[in-house]
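Dear colleague,

Thank you for sharing your sequence with our group. We've completed the structure prediction you requested, and as agreed, I am returning the results in plain text so they can be pasted directly into your records. Please verify that the sequence below matches your submission; if there's any discrepancy, let me know and we will rerun it promptly.
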Amino acid sequence: MAHARLRSPSPPASNKRAKTAISLIDDTESRFAPGLLTDSNIQRLNQEYLCSEPYKYCVIDKLFNDTLLSQVKDECIQQLGFTEKSTDIYRVHQTGDLASLSYLPKEQLDLLQGLLVLRDALYSSQFREFLQRVTGCGALSGIKQDMSVNSYKSGCHLLNHDDVIGTRRVSYILYMPLPVGEKWDESWGGTLELYPAKNGEPETIPTKRIPPAWNQFIFFEVQPGKSFHSVEEVVVGGGNDPRERLSISGWFHQAQEGEEGHEFELADREKSSLEQLTSGLERTFIPYPDDSPPPIPPILSEEDKEFLSQFMNPLYFSAKNLSMMAESFAAESSLQAQKFLREDLAAELEVGLRQLDTQEQLGHSRERMIPLHSNGAAPDSDWIIKGPPHKHRYCVFRNQDGQPEGATKILKQLQDVLFPSPAFRTWLALVSSLLPLQYSVEARRFRPGLDYTLATSENGEIRLDAVLCLTPDIEVEGKGKGKAEANWESGEWGGWQCYMAADEDDDDPAVYGSGKRKKEKAANGETNDEDEDSDDEDGSGTLLTVQPGFNRLQLVLRDAGVLHFVKYVSAKAHGSRWDVCCEWEVGQVELEEDEDGNLMTIR
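Please find the predicted structure tokens below.
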């Protein structure tokens, strides 16, 4: 008999009567693996927990009775509905909060007997006492339950964070990966990665990796500045491939008001990774030298053109094109300049960057679909990994003696010579009608399966961004350029640059694509034609999305509070995303004539 797939419900409003939840009839201890809750096992686990690195965590190889967990797995697949969710920090298929299952009608509860028994056993007083004794974490709530089922299929991932939100005290994950009976291979991805921390921020590379295993239970105390972790991208599953990283995960919260052991939240706790992220990045800006006066009024001299022509396409020097670009930028606050670099320079870069990816096991034919963290950033490489990964991770030039060669040399010249130059400052002022005051610039390499930036913004200041994307076109043997089944343009490989308006009412401004505002309006009967006709159908507030390309300059005037990020580059990608990223603090330049016809400046 076929059943309709269920959605996890929301709790009823306070003026509605809740449905009667099914209780845990049998003895709780019988639901768990034999010997789990014994004193001797607790003492053993406590010693392992205290000695674990990079921070205190515990792995239980077998948590529940296998018969019960198999029943739960079947119920999750056959009865629960999953929603794909994608943000700057994760992509996952997820159910609603399972704490709400108790409010389902009886005929639906009858289809989820195993899941209800598992949930009640997990949040029972016996198991909460077990966790407290193993971790020493303090009292845990039995009334505040927080759990969901997560399916990581091909392309799903979860980037670095510390889980510190509200009253969360212990984070956990219970694995039931598919197919059952087959050991999950590490080459499939989905490994839980734990990161050491220094001065409250995670190091760039994890030091502990835990692949999924059937009935495995992992937990750790949630601690600001310490409990940093991520989930590696899953690279199998989808279509006719049944493999998926299926799990139940959630949190035990500290005892709530009215429960034994309740304590007030400490007001002086360290910032969580989310709070650090939303407070913006610390960026070092370099002022222009004193002997380089500001271009007022901006006039591109023959000397400037001669300098810029070493790098740039001469088409961008003509008065007509400069005027057209300035008009377009004034209207849109953004501009794309295709074929920005000289043709010969671009051709050398395209070939050279492809070769670098191939040599460093980051290209299409690499041995591992998910590269090692050292790929592209080995000790003898020109590149080094830049973090911290709860904000961003990508490669930048290593400070070392000697000059790089080939494509790397050109990138360094763009970074150190072209973009900081007074001539480019003048060109920028002509196109943007803004006065660049000081700058920050870096050449970046985003490696597939590893690198990204998370959504950040600057409060109270506008920025002028210029990103010269230099990601080579796809070249697959036997198919030529741009003929891969998936490519950068499709968005499946990630690496796209996104600008979005922050939702001031959202607790997590780094989340996009959730449609939160629109759903709330619909629930309150506040939708209108404008909402329905909006191009931004998911309510995400996305202002601009730019897919990776080659030899294209993207110029954007970013208002204060606008979030921006580069999406995680999928392990599916056939190479790295390369760019030179520049950011300027700017002032406004307006020119008016005085009574004698002379130009005067107003800032």
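Summary note from our side: Residues 13-25, 506-539 have pLDDT under 50 and may be disordered.

Kind regards,
the structure core
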